[in-house]
Structure formats: C-alpha cells, structure tokens
Design goal:
The structure is a homodimer of 462-residue chains. Chain A is built from 14 helices and 16 strands. With 462 residues, chain A is of the alpha/beta class. Chains A and B meet through helix 13 and helix 14 of A and helix 13 and helix 14 of B.
Chain lengths: 462, 462
C-alpha cells in the first residue's frame, strides 16, 4: 500500500490503518465433543442452530484433525503450530494421573516457556488477545495465559471444572480474572465465558483482536441448567445432559457471533470452530459415528473433529474442503491473515490453509501427518493411515474409502506398510522424550476404550 | 539334621555346620563379550583355557539370556531376579546419555532402594558377600555396593573405565576399596579384580561366601597389556586387543578358580560364568555369530549370552541344558542352594534352575520371557520369538530352528503373532514407567546398529 492510499484511508475516517485491514480472529474451541454431535455434522439429536449458521457462512473441513486425541497435548499443538511431542508434550497433563516416575508433576507440567503461542505471534502483529475458559497448558504462574501471549483472561488453569460456582474453589479449578483475581461465575460458566468474550470484542472493536474462547463444554462433569435440560424431554440420562450442555455451548457461540454482527465487524472476522479431541463416549455419552474410536485413541474418532472456518470477505459460503488439515495449521493461517511474514514460521509444522481453501493452491496442505503417544503412533500419508499399536500388528486403512476404519489393508499392501512404518520412525526421531509420564494403567484404559468403540471391525485377511 | 549328627561333624573337625553344607557361590560376569568369543563357545581366535575347563566341569546353557541388551538394566535384573522395568530400570543409565527431560539424571540414577539384591538375600542366609569390578547400579552413595547387600567392595561405581591407573581419576571412574577409600590399581585392572576376589575367598574359606566378580572386560576402552597382545601376533587392530583382553579375562577367572581348588573348596562351590549383554561389534570387534544383532538390540545377539554353571557336588560334568534360562534365575537358584525358602521369593520372576538341570523337574523353567525398551519389545514363548519394532512390522522367529533369525514367520503364523502381541502388552502393563530417559538419538543408533549386524536376513513372504 502506498502512502497516498494510507492517507486517503485516514481521511475517510478509518480509525486506524490496521483496524480496517487486519481481520479479527475468533477461535471457538469445544472440549470432548463427539464428531457427530452437532447439527452441521448431521446430528438429529443435538440442537446447534448458531453453529449450523456458522457452518453455512464459510467452509466445513471434512477431514479436520487435532494433533493428539487428548486435551493437553492437542492444545499445545494448537497453540504452537508444532507437533507438541517435539518439545516433550507427548502425554496428557493431569496432576492426579501421573506416574511417580514422571520428571514433571502437578503444577510444574506446562507448555515449555521457550515455545511461542498463537497469542505471542498475533500480539507481534498488533492484535489485542484474550483467552476465555479452559487453559490446561500449565497451572504454575509462569504458564499463565497472561505470560503466554494473552492480554486478558477469564477462566481456569486446569483441564475440567464444574459449570457452576464452587463454594470452596481449589487449585486449578478456581475461576480467575486476568492474573490471580479469583471470582466464581454467577451463572452457567459456558454462558459466562461467551459474555466475557463478547465484552472484550466490544471493547476492541476498533483494533484487531484475537479471542481464544476455550469452552470446557462438553467435558465432564455432566452439568446443565434446568432450562436447557427441559429442551430435551425425550432424552434421559447422560445423553439428555449432553444435549443440554451442547445447546448451551451453541448459545454461547451465538452470543459471540451476534456481537460481531451487532458491531458490524463480522465480515472481516475469521471465526473458527473446532474441538480438542474426539468424544469420550463412555464418559459424556458423546457420539463419534461414523468414526470408530474415541478420545485418547488414534482411530479417526479420537483425532478427527468438527472443523469450521468463516471469513465472509474471503471464504466462500457453504463450501467444503476435503483434504486433511490439522489444528497446527491455525497458527500460520491466522498469522498470515494478520499480515505476518510466513517466513517467520520456518520451525512450525502447520501451513497456511487459506490459499488451499481459496483454490489458489492445488494439492494437499499436508502430504503426511503424524501422531504419537508412547508405542501407539499413526502416520497418515495421502489417503492411507497406518496405526502402530502396542498390543497387535499395525493396521492400514484407506481413510476416504473407509471412514469407519473397518477394512484393515495391512496384508494387502505390505510394501506400503513398511514404507510408512519407516517414515513414522524417522519422524519419531525428531521428537524430544516426554516431559512427563502418565501412570502405566492409562495405556490399558485407552486400548480398552478403543476396543469398546470399534464395532464391525473386519480384520485383514491373512 | 539331628543333634548327634551335628556334634559328630564338629568332632570330625568341621569348623562349622554351615561351612560344610552351604555352597560357596562365585559369579564371574563379563561385560560386552561376543557370544562366540570364547573357546567353549567355538571361537578359533580367542584363547580361554580356564573358562573352557569350567565349561567342561559343569553345565553349559545353550539358551542363556540376560534381561536386557544393555549393561545397567541387565545388571538390575540380575541383582534382583525381577524384570527390571517393573521398577522403572528400563533404559541404560549413563550420565552423559540422558535426555534433559529425564526424571533422574547423573548420580541420582540407580537401583531403587526398595529392591533387594542377591547380596541382601545371601547375607540373610549367613553368607559373606563381596563385589569386585564394575558396579553400574548407581553412583550416589546410597546405591553403593556396601549399602546393597555386599560386605566388601573393590571396583568402580560407573559403567566403564581404563584398565590402567588414571593419573587424575574422576567421578564414577575412580577405583574404590569398600566405601570411599580410593586407590588406583597398580597393574591391569582385570587381574587386580580377580586377585582381590581370591584374597576374599581365602579369608572366607571357612564360612559360606558369595563373590560377584563383575569384570569390565571386554568393554571399551580397548586396552590390553603388551604381554597379552604379544600372544596374538597374527591379529591386528581392535581384534588383537580384544583377544588380549579376553585372555586376561580368562586368566583372571583362572586366578579365582585355582584359589578355590587350592583351598579345597571347589567341590562345594557354585561357579557361574556369564556376560551382561551381547557384544557391541562396532565398538570392541566382538563377534556374536551365528547370532544376528549386537548389544542394545533385541535380536539373539543382544540378549543371548555365554552361560556356564559348575557345582561339582551337584551338577554333572560336560552337560548341556537347552531350554531358555535367564540371569533373573540366578537369585532364586543361589538362594535355594544357600538354604533359603523359595517361598520368600514370590515377587521374583526368576526360577530356581537347579532342579531342571538335575532333571528332577521336566519341562521349561519359563514358558514365556519378555524384554522391553520403549517401543522395542520381545516376547519369547516356547520356541517362538516375536519382536516388536518401532520402524517395521513385528517379526516372528522359531529360535531353535533359526538361530540367526533369518526367516521371519510373521505372515505364516498370523494368529501366533496376534496372541503373542497381546501377551507382550499384558506384561507391559505390569511395568512401571521408566525412571530415566535416554536422548532420543540413541534409539536411532540402536536400530542402525541392529541393521548393520544382520546379514542374510530373509523377509517374510507377503
């Protein structure tokens, strides 16, 4: 842009050069939601009118992945744009779940301080940044959002908490405003997070901003308001509560989306909706069908998530993008949209996906993608996915042809199995050893849960 | 034994009731020796007359295993009779090799204090116990042999050192008499260790004793005396040095064996000779043929070792025992021979192998055996061995039919593969997470070294 153009813009009453050009960015991030548990994903049970409208306003990614099937590592990948195991964030960080042999435990587990977050990158581009809701990237003060690229925060440091006020809030459950000012929510937390985000948006309407609205919905505990529960008289038990929690989640997203519209800044705002990992069906009655598997395992049900992106000025309505993308891509996508130089991101594994969505770039954003937790690991190369297990031979699937991973092709394509195994190991050798270690028993739990949510699996012919 | 019998023995001049009945126990333990690098194993290059004589005096185990293909974990299994990964001793403890993410590092790595050693068990049976040579089970004082079941010690705490005196000995290289009295050897260390052991034997000839003579031979550094080198004029380079070091090792074993004879206590002394893991052929020119593989990988060349046991009063001369046994068996074998109640060892994975050697018990001492380091793991069930790799599909071998592991049977017996995979995982779930972690790059090194020493491998037909 030339000088005279800038002057012209100022004369036309724009509050700032940046305000007009840089898109705002809102990342709506759900927790433990099932793959199919949204209207726009095909659910006949859940009611999500606001998110369905968001889906219609932009692109739906049909193969949107997270970088891990559990909360903490998935968020570490999202926040850094890197395979989180590269810096040792390989296993989920839950204070009570760790082995006594773990190097780090309790509040000492967190996103290593030498890693830069989306917040850090966008702050450098002049953005005001805020995080709401669940953090789960470290309880110690040094890991606090305000120390990791966010200007404002309202939420809790841990991985889960009640949706209502605690009488005696403790530890990483405590709801916190910015740094150290603790105040429990006065109504249902999902709504409160969205209201706080809407307030931030209103205060920052004249400058570019980034909102990371990290709902704990629909993670356990299974808690909903009486009013939301009443909307599902035909349902019972956990499924009823899940539906009510999802309705609240959708309403909260609507609070933010409506605020953008009300302020007239919706057209130049990028809104992403996604979810941190597959639904843990045994815990919260979530459904990942037609995908097999759940949270904490590497079948599609663990790592493929609902994934929407809207940017009315740039992305075509009601479009679909079918090649695999991953939450690692959000950092470079946002950074590039914010005017950042993509050359700054040489050490990042994500790619800017906007040129692919806009069909300016052909082909796949990623020829190959990887996942790992201890012996369990996955490589997705093109349409094929190899899963390395600790307790059974590796399995090979053609994912687009076999979305439920029912037809193991390992014996049919032995050379492909060997070649992908090798690539998986080569990638593994680029990772650090884990910074913390879960108790061994969770590995058994994860394998058992995978088996439980794997109907109709057809073993390879020998 | 009745009172009058005891009195009779005393009248006959026996120094004590125990001295006559309880066998002495001498464990001669080599370091990093090649499977074939002994006369009794078939070497045409190495000269080991004393060990060959020992082999002829008792039983040779043709499938004798260690519990890990690296020094530290193998010794932790030997000392406790347990799969060492059960208490987190899964990876080798070498201070400079550890990941910065390792929970324990440097001198803090060691055999956990809640574990009982062979020394502890034999002390309880009234034995005088002594350790000579390489310890490698922890550098910190609390891990010192004198704190782990040994009455006397001369050696060094670490994993390797020079065979000659250092001018400025440092850290875990320092040669130590008992606790904290440091004195460098005045001649070749292999000989010094044996002389110290012989002296201990002489001083304890009238009471039951246990000697753990843990040579660092033939670990690097490759150092031999001029005189020993002269015995191999036809050899050059590392092979020449290895032959000279092996000759010294054999001579040192002879020093101890001759002392037993000289004192007239050889008939009621159990002597075991073995080695901590397969030869690292790239480092010390050792040869594991006909086995494939080396130290630090799980082919037979990494985990199967020369293994002799002699007890003239009980074990038949020149016998061979062909079912798999493992160094974990030494603790219960020694303990039972010492009069200990095997019921005390319920938590041990080894078994007393003497009844098997004596043909009092039929069948296999172990229906199943396991090994593990991270993703790499092995289950040996009956004659079959399944190897789980990080970088290629699991392989299945019939070990007695295919000693070199050339014919991968995985595709031929898919049901066996599945069943063994499951058993391997079930066993893995009984282990603790590792107490310390190597740098990632060593995994690559181990895999590369395995590939390098794997000639003539024939992949499974697809």
């Amino acid at each position: 842009m030339k000088l005279y153009q800038m002057l012209l813009l100022l004369l036309l009453g724009q509050q700032s050069f940046y305000a007009q050009n840089k898109p705002n960015i809102v990342l709506l991030f759900a927790d433990d939601a099932g793959y199919i548990d949204f209207g726009f994903q095909g659910s006949k049970v859940m009611k999500t009118p606001n998110l369905d409208k968001l889906a219609n306003s932009g692109v739906t990614f049909t193969q949107g992945y997270v970088s891990d099937p559990t909360c903490g590592p998935s968020r570490a990948g999202l926040m850094t744009g890197k395979y989180q195991a590269r810096f040792g964030y390989e296993e989920i960080n839950v204070p009570g779940f760790m082995s006594s042999h773990s190097a780090l435990k309790g509040d000492e587990m967190g996103l290593p301080l030498d890693q830069q977050t989306i917040g850090n990158y966008l702050q450098k581009q002049g953005y005001k940044t805020a995080a709401y809701g669940k953090w789960h990237l470290g309880n110690a003060d040094r890991f606090h959002p305000l120390n990791r690229g966010f200007d404002e925060f309202y939420g809790f440091r841990g991985g889960a908490r009640s949706y209502f006020a605690y009488k005696n809030p403790k530890g990483d459950h405590k709801m916190e405003t910015n740094f150290g000012k603790y105040e429990e929510p006065d109504h249902y937390a999902t709504d409160v997070f969205a209201e706080k985000a809407a307030d931030f948006i209103e205060r920052n309407k004249d400058n570019p901003f980034f909102v990371y609205l990290s709902f704990n919905a629909v993670h356990t505990p299974m808690e909903a308001t009486e009013e939301d529960l009443k909307q599902f008289p035909h349902l019972t038990g956990k499924k009823k509560t899940l539906a009510a929690m999802t309705l609240a989640l959708d309403r909260a997203c609507g609070t933010v989306l409506n605020k953008l519209k009300e302020l007239g800044i919706d057209k130049n705002t990028i809104v992403v909706f996604s979810n941190d990992n597959g639904g843990p069906s045994d815990k919260n009655a979530s459904t990942n069908k037609p995908l097999s598997g759940t949270k904490s395992n590497h079948l599609e049900g663990g790592i493929r998530v609902p994934f929407l992106m809207s940017w009315p000025e740039k992305i075509k309505k009601k479009s679909r993008y079918n090649y695999p993308i991953i939450t690692l891509d959000l950092l470079p996508t946002f950074y590039a949209a914010a005017g950042g130089n993509i050359e700054d991101l040489k050490d990042i594994n994500g790619v800017n996906i906007l040129p692919f969505v806009a069909k300016e770039k052909e082909g796949r954003p990623h020829d190959i993608l990887f996942w790992k937790k201890e012996t369990r690991a996955v490589v997705r190369e093109g349409d094929y996915k190899l899963i390395r297990f600790p307790d059974r031979p590796a399995e090979l699937y053609n994912v687009p042809n076999d979305i439920s991973e029912r037809y193991n092709l390992a014996n049919q394509y032995p050379e492909k199995v060997k070649s992908m195994y090798k690539k998986l190991f080569d990638w593994e050798m680029t990772l650090e050893r884990p910074l913390w270690l879960l108790k061994r028993k969770y590995e058994q739990y994860d394998v058992d849960r995978m088996n439980q949510y794997r109907e109709g699996w057809i073993p390879a012919k020998d």
